[in-house]
Structure formats: structure tokens, C-alpha cells
């Protein structure tokens, strides 16, 4: 179990660093757009808008994976907060299973979406669109892994509470 936790920690560190690098890279095409539009110093480069969009998509999808890991993704509170350990397990279990179900849909349909993108190239950069579309199944894999890990933790907490109550 410690090996899995260590691998997840490395994955999260990789995600955080990658997002930071992508945000830094995003400033380049956006900065070029601002300079070219408002100063006229640079010619208008149309590819900068396309590149900024592609980088932003990656930031959003990788960031959504971190949101699931940090449990900062939204979940709608329809029922009052559970006070019993069993109620908490049921509530949190439902949330984690729902996120996992959506993750499986993103993986399943994202693979087809990526395959569709593999036969397309972007207009300005001539970049294969699969490089952007692959963010959908990649995010789905992250959501599923992190949600299932949280579910396993909830089950472990519940079991520990049951043992200590006996």
C-alpha cells in the first residue's frame, strides 16, 4: 500500500509541476498577443491564439485531476452532512462512485474522441488534434484513480472506526 501511495504522491507532484510549467508557457503566446494587439511592435501572429487555447485545455484538464485529488471538485450537498461513520461512508462512497462513473465515461468516449482527432490537424500550427483531445481520457484516468483511492480511504476509516468501537 505504501508503494501505491508513493506512486500517487509522485503523480501529484508531476501534475503540479506540469501545470506550473504550462502556466508559465501560456504567458508567452498570450504576451505576444497583447503586445501585437496594443503596441504594434510585433506582427499579429494567429498561431499564438491557437497555442494558448491548446495549453489552456491541458491546464484545465490536469487541474481537474488535482481538484479530484484535493477533494476541491464540486459535489452537491442534497442531504444533510452525515454524522455517523456509516452515513459518512455511504455519502462519500456515493460521491466517489459517481465521479468514477463519469471518469469511465470520459475514458470510454475520450478514446474515440482522441481517435477522431488523430485524423485532424489544427489550422495554424498544423498540430495533430489528438494531442489536445487526449486530455479527455487522461483526465478520466486521473479522476478514476483518485476517486477510487479516496473511496478506499473512506472504507479504511470506517473499518478502523468499527474495530475501535468493538
TrEMBL record:
Ranges that cross the membrane: 7-31, 51-69, 89-111, 131-152
Entry's Gene Ontology BP terms: C4-dicarboxylate transport
Mode of membrane association: Multi-pass membrane protein
Key words of the record: Cell inner membrane, Cell membrane, Membrane, Transmembrane, Transmembrane helix, Transport
InterPro entries in alphabetical order: DctQ, TRAP_DctQ
Protein task: Part of the tripartite ATP-independent periplasmic (TRAP) transport system.
Protein's name in the database: TRAP transporter small permease protein
Protein family: Belongs to the TRAP transporter small permease family.
Signal peptide: none
Self-association and partners: The complex comprises the extracytoplasmic solute receptor protein and the two transmembrane proteins.
Tripartite ATP-independent periplasmic transporters DctQ component domain: residues covered: 27-154
Places the protein is found: Cell inner membrane
